[in-house]
Amino acid sequence: MSIPTSGSHLTASAGSRNEQTRRHNLSTLLTLVHHHGALSRAELTKLTGLNRSTIGALNTELAAAGFVFESAALESGTVGRPSPMVNPSAGIVALAINPDIDAIEVGAVGLGGKVLVRARRATDSVPTPDEALDIALELIEDVRAQLPDGVSVIGVGVAVPGLVETSTGMVTRAPHLGWQDVAWGEQLSDALGLPVQVGNDAAVAVVAVAVFGAGQGAADLMYLNGSASGIGGGVIAGGTRLVGANGFAGELGHTLVNSEGVDCYCGRTGCLETEVNLNRLQAAAEVAGISAADAVAQLGSPAPEPFESEVDREADVLAHGIANLISVFNPEAVVLGGFLGDLYGARQERIRAGVLADAFAPLGDNVRIERARLGDELLLVGAAELAFGPLLHDPSGWKAQA
Amino acid sequence: MSIPTSGSHLTASAGSRNEQTRRHNLSTLLTLVHHHGALSRAELTKLTGLNRSTIGALNTELAAAGFVFESAALESGTVGRPSPMVNPSAGIVALAINPDIDAIEVGAVGLGGKVLVRARRATDSVPTPDEALDIALELIEDVRAQLPDGVSVIGVGVAVPGLVETSTGMVTRAPHLGWQDVAWGEQLSDALGLPVQVGNDAAVAVVAVAVFGAGQGAADLMYLNGSASGIGGGVIAGGTRLVGANGFAGELGHTLVNSEGVDCYCGRTGCLETEVNLNRLQAAAEVAGISAADAVAQLGSPAPEPFESEVDREADVLAHGIANLISVFNPEAVVLGGFLGDLYGARQERIRAGVLADAFAPLGDNVRIERARLGDELLLVGAAELAFGPLLHDPSGWKAQA
DNA sequence: CTTCGTTTGTGGTCGAAACGAACATAACCT
DNA sequence: AGGTTATGTTCGTTTCGACCACAAACGAAG
Fold it and tell me: Which CATH number fits domain A216-373: 3.40.50.720, 1.10.510.10, 3.30.420.40, 3.40.109.10?
């Protein structure tokens, strides 16, 4: 027996130069510190397998560029010379924007993934692209004004509820916003003079979950988010987000869960999102004398029929759907956000048991099911991650700007 | 707007040494030549982006090790000095083994993916692990005897119809063979004194499809294979095989296609494999006066009821199932093998139309649906690829043995 | 309480590995 | 013969690791 080879890329192509090694190592180091938080130099040496000298040199370069700073060692209590900590610099900031149907939200996120400043403006109606752009620019001004002196904004990440062409920043189709073929990324970039990355909100969220949220550390992860507009989601497989040939992979809301179910706008019948559905939950709540607005809050406590049975039904269908997807992806963790998280909170045992009963024998046993943790910061953190991408990928290319 | 970042690994960790560059480049070159076939040095230069000098040096090293050989340039008809071709050496061979319920098959596959020699022995009953091992060893002796002098066997790849622990070569559970917790890989390795890699047959097949078969060149690919024992499959996503946390991802035969369907042994109801099923097809054939053995052959030609309707039904369900999976994976190509390939051959338009009608709007349009091409060589080529893995990953590590 | 050994880790210099640039040359077409 | 495309070789640059000297913590012995 020898080296296992699974997981290697089948399509080899790009050659590697000598200087790419440096780029890769700088990227690795900065990414580690950004995702994991402060790490000692000794820990970095162990994690990367690189030589102390090399770590030292790389570190000096990152510190000189202002991306990290060193601080005194923690009081460890162990023998030996203490190793200084390498911290992500909070002076490096990404702006995150989330235009949605009822509000525009903007945040400033520091390297390390902490949200430093937030601003939100509710809108009376669904904003047009131009309105959203104007509001976003105003909010950005507010946010930047609140940032301490000396921070440098390295870019902007946008999370849009719709299909996005990531390479151009074009919003191809955002049905809930009513946007179509809008070059929002380019317009924003022109107005700000900053690089802008645009992504789908679910795709952005799953990255946040994987890097800073409940899915931290899992290389294989499913994220399902329930909102008024349906169920979105995303998948991390082998440490990489599942993208698909056209960037549309991971439409988990449209997996079949009940052939006898309700017709879905996607043209099919009995999709997960038509069967596990916030509107249906709220409708049942109102019949039971609970206001639609309180439906989610009431999930935990005993409630009159038909609300109780509807909650049970949705929990069962959700479990069935998760089990179905587990046999496809064999994930390490399943993270539930939005009202799916609330549903799970209220029917944890029922859903867990349903998944175990339904999933292919060995797969269900080891799966970690969890609620999303980052709450309303999820999209901001994820969008910022989009903006941090180029920096993390090639720190040396950014030295000039810092 | 700037560099797109999708597809990058979220979990950075391993540092890169200077010598890894060489390993990576050698690997890239050898993999290109192995997968793509003979390439000129100039083409290699363009594909890898490396310097001519470097390509020359790498090439010399690979040739010295005996993995490739140079030959005269093709008569191109273009101006300029002709560039010599770099060919995969057929003197480097991997052995491939496929123990199945009714036969053991062994093949010798050369670098470049060509099957050089095959041997097969049918068994009267399902072979025990020991029986299978003995037969395999005999067949291997036959095969090696037929190989020309001077070829070197670099390893063995095994495709097993069951769950496999790839790191140890342990067959955890192979229900159709009735094997459980068999250290087949280790036994084989001990008997032969060669490195042995064991993999699941579907996983192995999808790699063959992606590298040498109908899915060639597709970075996002779904493969579905129909056999008497059900529907197996695998997924290539972003150029890598979908593995999952425990190596069990891609159980595509157990996605739900009909909640009102037949109970499946997996515990659920209406799985793709219970609804699109060879036995049901054969049963319908017999009622229609066609022998079970001829059922698949009759797929193309008009046939009496109820066979005709059963074929239509299975085609429709297959289309529905494919559409469902397309919305999850957004693949570039879908490849159908076994009787699914025959079914597609007979009902191509119907299945295509069904997929288009059912799939999420933009996703179905671009998908290439194809029949598997490598036929009964598929598993051998795939298993050999398993054996080639370590060599392709690190050619310099193998120089000594050549 | 001081001292000294042990442990763990940093800093700096030097050498080795690997790739790219530049120049000279070779082979093909028109 | 001239233009075009490609190879081969030498030399310089980049980058990492090995090695040696030294620093900072703990703890045991005097």
Answer: 3.30.420.40
pLDDT in tens, A30-83: 999 999 999 999 999 999 999 999 999 999 999 999 999 999 877 777 888 889
User: How many CB pairs (< 8 A) connect A and B?
Assistant: 296
* Residues present in chain B in total: 402
- Judged by average pLDDT, the poorest of A11-20, A308-317, A354-363, B133-142 is A11-20
pLDDT of residue A143: 97
- What CATH number should be reported for the domain whose range is B20-73+83-88? 1.10.10.10
φ, ψ dihedrals at A111, nearest 5° = -60, 130
Which among B401, B372, B373, B389 is positioned nearest to B109, based on CA atoms?
Answer: B389
Topology adopted by domain B217-373? Nucleotidyltransferase; domain 5 (3.30.420)
Average pLDDT over residues B385-397: 94
Chain B residues touching residue A199 (CB < 8 angstroms):
6
A19 CA → D13 C1’, Å: 10
Tokens 């957004």 sit on residue:
B330
Q: Where on strand C do bases come within 7 A of a protein Cβ?
A: 5-13, 16-22, 26-30
Which positions of strand D lie within 7 Å of protein CB atoms?
3-10, 13-19, 23-27
CA–CA distance, B389 with B198 (Å, rounded to integer): 12
Overall average pLDDT of the A241-251 stretch: 90
Give the residue-averaged pLDDT of B202-225.
95
A97 part of contact set with chain B, CB < 8 Å: no
In this complex, the answer to whether residue A63 has its CB under 7 A from any atom of chain C, a nucleic strand, is no
Q: Which residue is nearest to nucleotide D19 (CA to C1')?
A: A53
- Residue whose CA lies closest to nucleotide C13 C1': A53
DSSP structure class, residue A377 = G
The 10s digit of each residue's pLDDT in B159-188 is 999 889 989 999 998 988 999 999 999 999
A312 Cα to chain B: minimum distance (Å): 18
Q: Does B238 touch chain A (CB under 8 A)?
A: yes
Q: Following DSSP, what letter does each residue of B46-105 receive, concatenated?
A: HHH---HHHHHHHHHHHHHHTSEEEEPPP---SSSPPPPEEEE-TTEEEEEEEE-SSEEE
